[in-house]
């Protein structure tokens, strides 16, 4: 996969990035650019994690000239875009009549076929986080139902058209803004940083898309049932230390166990226990890395009575032992 960038404000206007299939990469790579033309101050930061590539634009254009960015991708991609400040509009070059706009404090998920897109930035100051991934990554995180149940997406894909999942975008709430800031301001190094960023990216995708996935879900789940599932998920996040059995959570949601498991996976894209494990591992990483908890203390705080069971679950999910966080 090749993506070409051509910015009207960078001294080195054109940049070419080559990627493996599905943005596959074994190690974290980062790069930052500050070589803007006169009158522009700030930076563009690139981060490439396994299965995802992102760049963060944070700069102030003191001139009256509008900033444009051409992005050419030779294969279809998804773009999860967060506009923290400024406004962005874009269209495929030969279809300028179809314009997509995302205003300040909004985010959206776009399907972009192989094409050349022209992005226009109207405001002087801009902070925009762009996250690229493929359908494989989206299904891995959100479940196949996220795309299967969207007839408009499938039609756009068939016709090689851009598709906007959330119309004019959704509001970046305080929870999402905190996650974005934690992702962009990580102070770890090496494998710890890579693990932290991967877990934060997963959290960001889940919170941004799963919470607002209700518009894409079939009518099998009633509105009242959806609300109960969301409340149950919020309880899970707030009580990771407690025993979270299927029976207990099903009763809380007002479902039988079978209906609860299928409904939860339909909304959050993961089976209940896999979802809980992801949250527990993520919180444990924060406790060990940021608050100097021992492995035993962290495992207890996230609901594991036996530290060995925690270590096995951690190794299976992260690919390395929790002791490496301490080292």
UniProtKB/TrEMBL annotation:
Originating species: Polaribacter haliotis
Matching PANTHER family: REGULATORY PROTEIN PCHR (PTHR47893)
Alphabetized InterPro entries for the sequence: Homeodomain-like_sf, HTH_AraC, HTH_AraC-typ_CS, PchR_regulatory_protein
Protein's name according to its UniProt entry: Helix-turn-helix transcriptional regulator
Domain (HTH araC/xylS-type): residue spans on this chain: 230-327
GO molecular-function terms, A-Z: DNA-binding transcription factor activity; sequence-specific DNA binding
Key words of the record: DNA-binding, Transcription, Transcription regulation
UniProt superkingdom: Bacteria
